Amino acid sequence: MEVKQKYLTYKGHIVFGKQSMPEFDRIPKEYADNEACFVFVNQGEVSVRSQNDYMNLNKSTGVLAKCLHYFFEMNEAQRKSSECVEVIAVLIYPSLVEELFEFDLTQSNYSFNFNIKQVQIDRLLENFKESINILIDNPELADESIIKNKLKEFVLLMSKSQNAPSQLDFLSALFKPIDISFKTTIQHNLYSSLSIDDLARLCHLSTSSFKRKFSEVYEDTPKKYIAVKKLEKAASLLKLNDNRISDIAYDVGFESLATFNRNFSKRYGKSPSEYRLS
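User: That's the sequence. What structure does it adopt?
Assistant: Structure tokens below.
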């Protein structure tokens, strides 16, 4: 997979970027932790998975995200299309905010009740995206003053779209992630195909720290606990509906039908098709 990137910088920080992604399964957000961002979909469709959210995005929707880890994932609609996914991102940093606006972010206690939010792209945001697209493709036009004004324009548009009391309140809220509990993150993503390393990333933990915490909370290893829960869910679905076994395997987070069949037979003593008939 070849990921193509173009970007514009301001004061040493990437502030506008365009990334094209051929077919992929999952890509982590690849930027620094201490930033917030807004992502437009310029082409195709893509899904975003965070600690407790999963949303599909297309040209009519974008995502506003605080400074946290999340993943871009290829959704079913995009898998059936040969179109490459292309996104445009606006990246916001506390140090740049305070320099651009002469704000002290500690002076506001305002916060949003989300870490990541789907946003409808209205005409103003669409026009803003197109202007950034032009600048990224023609970097010779993007001098420091233009980039500075575009960052200010974005903050004004987004603060109004989110009904924030002021630009200061909007910006301050962007750098205040809501604490999502460990259990909430696990339960929300239990039937995904996330690896243990991926789950650790969502929890903002190293893999070793994640395994220790998981064992403390669930009194089991993550590999064993998650496998059992997926198989229990699959067994329930086999009794409740007539979906294809391959679809059920995918729905509970198995990427391979052979792996699902092997694990299911080992736990229940029957193949999934035999279990359904019994």
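Strands lie at 4-10, 13-21, 26-28, 36-43, 46-49, 54-57, 61-65, 71-73, 85-92, 116-120.
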